[in-house]
Amino acid sequence: MKLGFIGLGRMGFNMALNLKDHNVDVVAYNRSREPVDEIKKKGVRAAYSVKELINKLSNQKIIWLMVTAGKPVDAVIEELLPYLKEDDILIDGGNSFYKDSVRRYKYLKKKKINFVDIGTSGGLKGARCGACLTIGGDEKIFRKIESVCKSVSAKNGYAYAGPSGAGHFVKMVHNGIEYALLQAYGEGYELLFKGPYKNLDFRKISTAWKNGSIIRSYLVELAEEAFRKDAKLNKIEGVVGGGETGEWTVKTAKEFGVDAGIINYSLNARKKSKKNPRFAGKVIAALRNEFGGHGVVKR
User: Fold this and answer.
1) Fewer CB within 10 Å: N-end or C-end of the chain?
2) 22-31 long-range CB contacts below 8 Å, 24 or more apart?
3) What are the residue numbers of the active site?
4) What is the pLDDT of residues 139-180, one digit of tens each?
5) Do 22 and 46 touch, CB atoms closer than 8 A?
């Protein structure tokens, strides 16, 4: 299968390489030239314009978008439309708000173009070696691209979630849970940091926790790695970035009468961290950097 791929940021670049490793014939394009040059060096077919991308694809165009949520997604869709025809398939694998995905599905359906929303999780390692995907859209269209979803996912790491928007809805909730988990780990490590025992080795504790404890998780594995690099996280500030997907989750929870107090608290803690950094924020920032390459504020 030939697949057009637009968006070579941190996640997209790794995803394109993952697809190539699984013998998907990828043609990759990015608005800025440098990532295209770099992906080309790694053996992925490259395009330097939308027109060139289209010309290198099969008769039925299948194009995977991995661009920033919001207006950038709409802008790319509008740029592609003159080149698309009936029954072509557009996939949004980024972190879009699910209602935007439903809107795009309806808009493209009128033009007889298929739209699939895919929530992509697993961070940079997942994008490169096996992601977690939740897929929304028409099931018959999902079946056409299922082999691609399977190839880029971890074992048993993809699921058809339901109609349009379902893939991104599930990913939004996933991110809300992530906010709460990160906050819990951050506050726990802060208590270790400020408690009565001043020479605790956080890396050794993380190693123990990841092996058999009730709270073991991938995040604890990443904490172990972060503390290996910087034993007390002295090199970074406790400022936590992000927040958009958390805002979506809290807003949607209110809409459906769900008490998302822990997620809301975690979202507000991120906002407060910009003015009042804490050790918990250091832990969260370090973990986000480990799994997603998100920036940290250095001291």
Assistant:
1) C
2) 22/151, 22/152, 23/151, 24/148, 24/151, 24/152, 25/1, 27/2, 27/3, 27/53, 27/56, 27/57, 29/4, 29/5, 29/53, 30/6
3) 171, 178
4) 999 999 999 999 999 999 999 999 999 999 999 999 999 999
5) no
